[in-house]
Amino acid sequence: MKEGIHPDYPAAKVSCACGNGFVTRSTRGDFQVDVCSSCHPFYTGTQKLMDAAGRVDRFRKRYAAKPAAGEKAAAEVPAEAPAEATPSE
């Protein structure tokens, strides 16, 4: 490596919103993150849904028990009453 052309790379403390913290190296110094490997759903295997104004509940209610297309069409059309026989002359 050439001397004098590389930036300083000191230790930096990273703090997560979940309370976890670790030390790494960075040119920008100490900083905070919203999600880390201790709380990210991909790494933990848990799902965490952030419900903003009931959007998740609205989505689940809308798509939870939606009948299939064939069942829906059959349910909407009432059974036809048998046609009355008209006397023919």
Which tags fit this structure?
16% strand; 3 helices; 3 strands; three-stranded mixed β-sheet; 89 residues; Rhinovirus 14, subunit 4; alpha+beta; 24% helix
Question: Would you kindly provide a written description of the structure presented here, covering whatever features stand out?
Answer:
It is built from 3 helices and 3 strands; from the N terminus they run βββααα. The protein is α+β, with helices and mostly antiparallel strands and 89 residues long. Strands 2-1-3 form a 3-stranded mixed beta sheet, with no helix packed on it. The protein starts with 10 loop residues before the first strand and ends in a 13-residue tail after the last helix.
Lateral arrangement of strands in the main beta sheet? 2-1-3
Shape call: rod-shaped
- The CATH class is Few Secondary Structures
N-to-C order of helices and strands: EEEHHH
User: What is the makeup of the main sheet?
Assistant: 3 strands, mixed
* Estimated structural class: alpha+beta
Give the radius of gyration: 31 Å
Strand content: 15-25%
Q: How many helices? A: 3
Helix content: 10-25%
